[in-house]
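Renewal narrative, Specific Aim 1. Our central claim is that a sequence can be written position by position from structural information alone. The example that follows is taken directly from our test logs and has not been curated for this report. It begins with the structure tokens describing the chain, in the order in which they were read.
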């Protein structure tokens, strides 16, 4: 059995706090016998929560019991399949990124187990994990880089805003001068 967890996009995928990220988990039976009672789950990093399952591709497998995660879960679980030799289950799902998450790189792990094989995993911090297909586990394939939130608009005017303010004040001064001049000139005629 092999498992391969990837972030969708060109890793490391960059997101901002409050955004979303999409992952795939591919579990393949590379053995000669059917893999029985297979469950697949993900251990999302802190500040990430499961949002939705976007697709499950499980051609030629038998899903004899349907278990799906609920939104907000931090360890989403899908089950249960019998996977014939040479076939796989591929899950694509979306996770929400918390609005208060600190900037940094976040990795997570995917796992699977069954009745007739030991637990397999794809550890996010390891390149070419022993349970992943050879050549398909680069160091950044599960990485998500969270950028800091852009700063809120400043209350201090920018240079161009100062220019607009100065122009407005000059125009107001001109109006006052013009009205006052007319009043003084008009008062001098009487």
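The sequence written for that structure reads:
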């Amino acid at each position: 059995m092999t498992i391969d967890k990837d972030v969708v996009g060109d890793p490391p995928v960059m997101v901002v706090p409050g955004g979303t990220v999409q992952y795939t988990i591919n579990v393949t039976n590379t053995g000669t016998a059917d893999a029985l009672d297979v469950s697949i789950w993900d251990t999302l990093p802190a500040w990430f929560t499961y949002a939705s399952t976007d697709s499950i591709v499980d051609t030629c497998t038998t899903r004899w019991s349907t278990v799906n995660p609920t939104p907000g879960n931090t360890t989403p679980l899908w089950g249960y399949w019998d996977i014939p030799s040479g076939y796989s289950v591929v899950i694509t799902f979306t996770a929400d990124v918390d609005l208060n998450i600190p900037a940094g790189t976040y990795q997570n792990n995917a796992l699977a187990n069954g009745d007739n094989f030991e637990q397999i995993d794809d550890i996010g911090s390891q390149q070419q994990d022993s349970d992943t297909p050879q050549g398909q586990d680069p160091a950044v394939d599960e990485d998500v880089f969270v950028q800091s939130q852009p700063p809120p608009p400043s209350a201090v005017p920018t240079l161009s805003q100062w220019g607009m303010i100065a122009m407005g004040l000059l125009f107001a001064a001109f109006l006052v001068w013009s009205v006052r001049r007319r009043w003084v000139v008009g008062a001098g005629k009487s």
